[in-house]
């Protein structure tokens, strides 16, 4: 099933592009976090990006972060069968090595990261919206 709503999608595309209506300063859309939250097993990505069929689980969200051996085993060659990333935002790094644990009863398929790194446990929501660099 493909979900489509003109107004909602237009607003979401603007927001994702960083030009939507958001009162928070320097707000960035984190596609890695969204992928892990709403497609933790990577099934949706594999449905629409067949080049990544051989990559199992949540690794499908960050193929450029895999070892060359893992890419070879999956039949993926960065720059040939799948493009190199155009950018890699620093905000993504805290999510790349976190993997969801199994299926969640969340209505939208959300399953949280496998663990919260010790240095991030007591940060609260301000950590994610702060202008400070990652610790």
Automatic annotation (TrEMBL):
Q: State the similarity comment.
A: Belongs to the DNA photolyase class-1 family.
User: By what name is this protein known?
Assistant: CRYD protein
- Give positions of region: Disordered: 90-123
Against InterPro entries, the record matches this protein to:
Crypto/Photolyase_FAD-like_sf, Cryptochr/Photolyase_FAD-bd, Cryptochrome/DNA_photolyase_1
Q: Which UniProt keywords apply?
A: FAD, Flavoprotein
Q: Which cofactor does it need?
A: FAD
Keyword Flavoprotein listed: yes
Q: Which GO terms describe its biological process?
A: photoreactive repair
* Superkingdom classification of source: Eukaryota
GO MF: damaged DNA binding; deoxyribodipyrimidine photo-lyase activity; FAD binding
Q: How is the cofactor bound?
A: Binds 1 FAD per subunit.
Quote the record's binding site residues for FAD.
3-5
| Residue ranges occupied by any Cryptochrome/DNA photolyase FAD-binding domain in the UniProt entry | 2-97
């Amino acid at each position: 099933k493909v979900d489509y709503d003109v107004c909602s999608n237009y607003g979401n595309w603007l927001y994702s592009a960083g030009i939507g209506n958001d009162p928070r300063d320097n707000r960035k859309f984190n596609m890695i976090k969204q992928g892990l939250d709403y497609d933790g097993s990577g099934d949706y990505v594999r449905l629409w990006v067949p080049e990544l069929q051989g990559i199992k689980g949540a690794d499908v969200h960050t193929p450029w972060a895999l070892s060359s051996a893992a890419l070879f085993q999956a039949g993926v060659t960065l720059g040939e069968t799948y493009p190199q990333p155009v950018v890699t935002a620093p905000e993504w790094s805290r999510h790349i090595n976190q993997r969801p644990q199994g299926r969640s009863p969340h209505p939208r398929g959300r399953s949280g990261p496998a663990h919260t790194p010790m240095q991030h446990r007591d940060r609260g929501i301000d950590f994610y919206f702060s202008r400070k660099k990652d610790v």
